[in-house]
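Fold this sequence, please.
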Amino acid sequence: MRAICLMGPTASGKTARAIALARRLPFEIINVDSAQVYRGMDIGTAKPSPAVLKDTPHRLIDIRDPWETYSAGAFCADASNAIREIISGGRIPLLVGGTMLYFQALQRGIAQLPAADPALRAELDERAARQGWPALHAELQALDPVAAARLKPTDAQRIQRALEVCLLTGMTISELHRATTPPLKVDYLNIAIMPANRQILHRRIEDRLTLMLEAGFVAEVRALSQLANMSATVPAMRAVGYRQMWAHVAGELSLAEAARQAAAATRQLAKRQITWLRSWPELVTFDSLDENLEDQFDNLINAWLAEGASADISS
C-alpha cells in the first residue's frame, strides 16, 4: 500500500495544491487537520467550501460535533479505514494537513499508555501546590530526562502526565513511545511545502485572518457559543483563533485585541509546525515561493507514480 502525506505550516498553500492534484490524478484526499473534523467550524479553520468539497471530496471533514472530543487514536482508526477503502477502490490516498501529531501517530504508532489515575493526579497536584511545578519537573528530569528536556518547568499538564506514567508503569513515557508500531503498514511519500521567507508566511497568516473576519468568523464563534453543549473549555475551542474569538464574544477582549492575539498564536503554531517538520525523516521539502515549484512538484509526483506502476508490473 502506498500513500502521500502533504504537510506544511498553516497558510502555506497545502490545501490548494492537494485539490489541484486530486482533480487531475487518481488521488483522494484525507483531511489531517484536528479542527476541520468539527462541524460548524468552517471559517476559522479555512475549511474548503461546500462547492469545493462536492467537486473534490475530503474524508474526515465534519465528522464530529464541536463539543465532542477527537484524539490521535481516533484519527489513526479513521484514517486507516479511509486508506484501505481508497486503495481498494483503485485510487491513492493523499493525506493533507498541518496536525503533525496525527501524521506521527499514523506513521509511527501510538504508545499504549495507562489510563489516568485520579488519586495519583490529586497527589501530584497537591505536591505542586506546595513545591511548585518546577520542583516536579526536576523530579521528572531524574526519572525521564528525555521527556523533561521537551517540557518547560511550568508545563503542568504534561509534567503531571509524564510523572503519572512513570509511577504507574515503572517505564518512562519516552520508552513507551519508542515501543509503538504503526496501525497500518503503508509506504508513505512525505512532502512538505514551506515558504523560505518566514516574514511572507507571517503576512499570509495576517491576510488570511483578515479575510476570515470579513467572512464572518466572529459570527461563527458566536453561533458556536450559543450551542447547548458548548463552552470555552471543550477541546475544539483550543484551536488557534477560536479561543481568542470566544474571549471576544464573551466580552473579555476587544475585537482588535482578539485579532492581534489570534495572529500571534497562529504564528507560534506555524513555528512549531516548521520545527517539527525539520526533524521529520525522509521528508521532501519544497519552497512554496519558488517560481519553479509547480514543475518540481509534478516531477516528484509523476516519478513516484511511475515507480509504483513499475512495482505493480514486476509483482
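Residues 118 and 157 are 13 Å apart (CA to CA). The longest strand covers residues 187-194.
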